[in-house]
Specification:
alpha+beta, 2 domains, six-stranded antiparallel sheet, two-stranded antiparallel ribbon, 8 strands
């Protein structure tokens, strides 16, 4: 099923939205926002996403992963700079050794002796000026060489420190992943086979700092973080235009923080267990969030009694209580990074 299947007769446009989303011309006619009836909104209040402990463990893992990636890039840059400095270092050392040899075997006075002994005052002045110039220029060059050699030595030390720090961060990464796995295992989070391939177009990466809950939420009148609003807009652009509800003022999890959205599998709002086209829509949307998780900054996804987060993949979801809302069988839950 194409991700852009759109509700028509059941759809109602948002009212009171503070911000209009902008899309390509081809997508404008297809985008339909819906406001949930109070009963549906209240039903969703029961669903809180992942536990606070699991959510924090996932965030710790993602932060450590980003830090490790940054350190690895820094190591590559340092190694390249150090490699290009190797020949320079050798040449500078030769020049430095030459300075030492000249200083021990000759003197600038020898090169100006004839001028100084000529008896001509102008020759004597010229000789003293030449002597001063040679002394200053050699001293400046000597200092340049010493400073550059020190920089190269410091570069090597920075590279060594970087590699050592990578080992520490890698340990933190494993610890965070293990903690998240323990949180899932403690609540029956066994490995599961969830959707991973979508036929929707790729999302544009999020740029900038996510920040706080500073952006108007066009689905509820609440607020969203810039990163979450970007993910919502990108999902709509990709063709996922069915009912969505994001901000909630109460409860735990990411909804009250403006970092979560519930994407209904039905066109008109949250209903019963998704089946047929509705199920395919949810499968496609969940897979799309996973495919674009790095570009968007996805923390985790919940769909059809399963939860996905980076580093672990799909696991059975322990927050299911037998109803479509908590089982997430009528909507895809998206939580975004802070």
């Amino acid at each position: 099923m194409n991700a852009g299947t759109i509700a028509r007769s059941a759809a109602r446009p948002f009212r009171g939205a503070k911000r209009l989303l902008t899309f390509p011309v081809a997508a404008v006619a297809a985008v339909v926002f819906l406001v949930s009836p109070a009963s549906q909104s209240n039903a969703q209040e029961e669903e809180e996403g992942a536990s606070a402990e699991l959510s924090q463990a996932i965030e710790d893992y993602l932060n450590a992963r980003d830090e490790l990636a940054a350190l690895e890039q820094q190591e590559e840059d340092l190694a390249n700079e150090l490699a290009s400095s190797t020949e320079e270092q050798a040449a500078l050392q030769v020049e430095l050794d030459d300075f030492a040899y000249v200083a021990s075997t000759t003197s600038d006075f020898q090169s100006t002796a004839a001028l100084l002994s000529s008896g001509d005052p102008q020759d004597a002045i010229a000789a003293m000026e030449l002597l001063q110039f040679l002394g200053e220029s050699r001293a400046d060059r000597y200092n340049e060489i010493v400073l550059r050699l020190q920089e190269i030595e410091a570069l090597q030390q920075t590279l060594d420190d970087n590699i050592a720090e990578q080992a520490d961060v890698a340990d933190e990464l494993e610890d965070a992943r293990d903690e998240a796995a323990r949180e899932l295992a403690a609540n029956g989070g066994d490995a599961a086979d969830g959707p991973t391939a979508s036929d929707a177009p790729a999302a544009d990466p999020f740029q900038g700092d996510s920040g706080g809950c500073t952006e108007d939420d066009p689905t509820t009148g609440g607020c969203l973080t810039p990163r979450t609003l970007h993910a919502l807009e990108q999902a709509q652009i990709a063709g996922f235009t069915r009912f969505v509800s994001c901000y909630r003022p109460s409860g735990s999890g990411e909804h009250p923080k403006g970092r979560a959205c519930d994407f209904s599998s039905e066109a008109g709002g949250f209903g019963g267990d998704a089946g047929g086209e509705d199920y395919d829509y949810g499968q496609n949307l969940a897979a799309w969030f996973i495919e674009n998780s790095d570009a968007l900054g996805v923390q985790y996804v919940i769909w059809y009694r399963q939860i996905w987060f980076p580093g672990e993949g799909w696991r059975s979801y322990s927050g299911a209580y037998g109803d479509p809302s908590s089982d997430h069988t009528n909507h895809v839950h998206l939580s975004m990074r802070s």
